[in-house]
Amino acid sequence: MKCLVTGAAGFIGSHLCERLLQSGHAVAGIDAFIPYYPRAVKEANLAGPRNHPDFTLFTSDLRDSDLAPALDGVEAVFHLAAMPGLPRSWTDFALYEGCNVAATQRLLEAARQTPTLRRFVYASTSSVYGRYGSGDETLPTRPSSPYGVTKLAAEHLCRAYAEEHGLPVVVLRYFSVYGPRQRPDMGYHKFIHALLHGDEIAVFGDGLQTRGNTYIDDCTAATMAALEAPVGEVYNVGGGETASVWDILGKLETILGRRAVVRREPARAGDQRFTAADAGKLTRHLGWTPAVGLDDGLARQAAWQQAQQGRRLAA
Ligand SMILES: NC(=O)c1ccc[n+]([C@@H]2O[C@H](COP(=O)([O-])OP(=O)(O)OC[C@H]3O[C@@H](n4cnc5c(N)ncnc54)[C@H](O)[C@@H]3O)[C@@H](O)[C@H]2O)c1
């Protein structure tokens, strides 16, 4: 099957491209290399797919490029491109609005003119639930950050295109994804980096904020499973294990054999207090269950960051 992955050079997108290629699919990737974190990191993410004969990269911006060439003959779209990260969405709203809302509308418009299309999978987030994202998909959506608002707006756009134009949409709400290649602005990446370098770690608020965590391989498995999902459904994607900031720091101290040097900071506006995915619907409909536990997953991410650091020192 020919698939299109938007945000192909990102953390989750690059893993998804690899997995689709491994499963025998042909993959077109779109990425604009938005400099939210360095292009070199994203280029490295794509090292595997770029060498694969069935992979084509379109360095295109969903906000203004002609999307027809990338969609030609595509049967499944996985729309992962977005401006992620909650704190910056308060200060750079135009970028979030453009990359998360306007870009999605342009992609949906191009997708509905693609006769081969069988599924359009939209990567949403637990942030659509707001401060207390704990439960199943019937929880009220009350985002507490501009980021969450733009991601929810894009969900609504997907629904409008599904209802009015028959687009075969499936929405996935990812809960805190981690593992090798995690974005450098994300908490666990920053914690591991600080532990490896002996730097201070900023803990915001009381540190008791808790996350449902999803290992990257479980996330990509769920995303591929969505190809078989009934059209119009929304699914939580969560690894089933929750942990507070203190829990995570304790686990990472054990894994790396180093003590964290903590600096306390005030809580950040819009931060979620508690997230825990009830992903039972995904299990019931598609048989998906998470396979990687938190200790194992954190150890894998720490090993990857250590290897990255080793390569930088050797260079
Ligand atoms: N990482 C998580 O824990 C998490 C949790 C919930 C939801 N999500 C969602 O999953 C998706 C992927 O997240 P990620 O962590 O891999 O982020 P990422 O920043 O690593 O990847 C996103 C990619 O999209 C690209 N992009 C952004 N705007 C674009 C545009 N206008 N045109 C073309 N490319 C564009 C960026 O250059 C980037 O490479 C996002 O939609 C995000 O909202 C992620």
Summarize the structure.
With 315 residues, the protein is of the alpha/beta class. The chain is 40% helix and 21% strand.
CATH hierarchy class name of the largest domain? Alpha Beta
Number of individual domains: 2
CATH architecture heading of the largest domain? 3-Layer(aba) Sandwich
**What is the number of strand segments?**
14
In the sheet with the most strands, the strands line up as 3-2-1-4-5-7-11
Share of residues in strands: 15-25%
Determine Rg (CA atoms, Å). Answer: 19 Å
Write down the secondary-structure element order: EHEHHEHEHEEHEEHEEHEEHEEHH
Helix content range: 40-55%
Write the layout of secondary structure elements.
Elements (H helix, E strand, L loop, with lengths): L1 E5 L4 H12 L3 E5 L8 H7 L1 H4 L4 E4 L9 H4 L4 E4 L13 H19 L7 E7 L6 E4 L10 H20 L3 E6 L2 E2 L8 H11 L2 E5 L5 E6 H10 L8 E4 L3 E4 H12 L4 E5 L8 E4 L2 H7 L7 H21 L1
Parallel strand pairs: 1-2, 1-4, 2-3, 4-5, 5-7, 6-14, 7-11, 8-10, 9-13
Antiparallel strand pairs: 10-12
Helix pairs in contact: 1-8, 5-6, 7-9, 7-11, 9-11
Summarize the structure in words.
The chain has 315 residues and is α/β, with parallel strands linked by helices. It has two domains: 2-178 and 215-237, NAD(P)-binding Rossmann-like Domain (Rossmann fold), CATH 3.40.50; 187-210 and 241-276 and 292-314, UDP-galactose 4-epimerase, domain 1, CATH 3.90.25. It is built from eleven helices and 14 strands. The chain has helices at 11-22, 39-45, 47-50, 68-71, 93-111, 146-165, 187-197, 216-225, 245-256, 280-286, 294-314, and strands spanning 2-6, 26-30, 55-58, 76-79, 119-125, 132-135, 169-174, 177-178, 200-204, 210-215, 234-237, 241-244, 261-265, 274-277. The strands form four sheets. A seven-stranded parallel beta sheet has the order 3-2-1-4-5-7-11, with helices on both faces. The protein has a three-stranded mixed beta sheet with strand order 8-10-12. The chain has a two-stranded parallel sheet with strand order 6-14. It binds nicotinamide-adenine-dinucleotide. The site of nicotinamide-adenine-dinucleotide has 30 residues, from α1, α5 and β5.
